[in-house]
Amino acid sequence: MNKFTKTRRHIFDTEEGDSSVTEIRLDADDSREFGDSRDSQDIEIEAADVTISAIGAPTTVAGDDLQIGAEFERIGDVPVEDMTVEFIVGNETIETDDLNVDPGDTQEGEVTYKTSSSDVPELDVSVVIPEINESADTQATIISQADHEENMNVKIDSEDGVEIGNFSEELEVTGEFEYNGDETTLSDFLNGETDR
């Protein structure tokens, strides 16, 4: 008796609410090809969604530009044509952009905010997609110019001595710069290399 297998493929278009389904079952009753049989398989259907998967705002010196970045993820084919992204510092929306990310993909967004001495020591930062009530928050550390300068040390390397020639020659001085404050970049936050 010859044995053979036959494969049939069925494509099922998922709909809203299908993420609650945890099992798929195949029943082949009184089938000439399969006989009476049943088989099942556990499945996971992820709900279509748009999320803010990362947010970052690194330590900044008062008076400098604060870089605010976020990463957006589109799960499934949820429509995003009418969605916007708001970047908020304190209670002020500093920029609003259209959300434009392909299904199953991620997109990064970045804006800058000019800090001032009134922003020391911390600044509340938020990114919001208002159409779906999705938001992410963080706090940016803003250090004063005085603290920034206090954290910086300069040391002249004088192991070989400093030799001063005549006025027509160049004077070469070797120095070491050291900074004792926090040093983070926006990519550290978006790549998960630092705590939010």
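Second entry:
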Amino acid sequence: MMAGAKAPEGKGKGMKNARGLIGLPVVMESRTLGRVSAVELEPGLRALSGLYFSCGLAGSRRVSCGDLDLIGDVAVLVHATGKRSQPPAPPLPRRAVSPDGSRLGAITDAIIDEETFQVPLLELSGGYLDDLTQGRVRTGAFSVTEDGDVIIDVPKGEEGS
């Protein structure tokens, strides 16, 4: 971003990558409970539903979204210890397709709003070469099928690019 340029409203500040949460300490009342080991998204990928954290020999625990206080830069603050639970299969990556069914790539990450725990954007990878030459694309125009595929609404004129 150029000097003096402002970040667009609702983007950048207050957003976290789901992958970036892995490894952060989970803290309750100044005591570290463990480290984030998995992120759980709602089936439609529009919101965070919970976090799993590893407690070492005590196993894994799940804390629901309602028990999260803050997702910070260096820690996740909670007000409940959560319940013992094994993490499910990872929600990402998922296949991304256009509305006509052609393959676009894979959804590799979810961008989570720190305050509302909603997922306004998903990160789309077109493959190694596309990632190197064009970078990954973030999109908020998506829906999820019953099979778990993500349909990305591609603007006219951008198909096949």
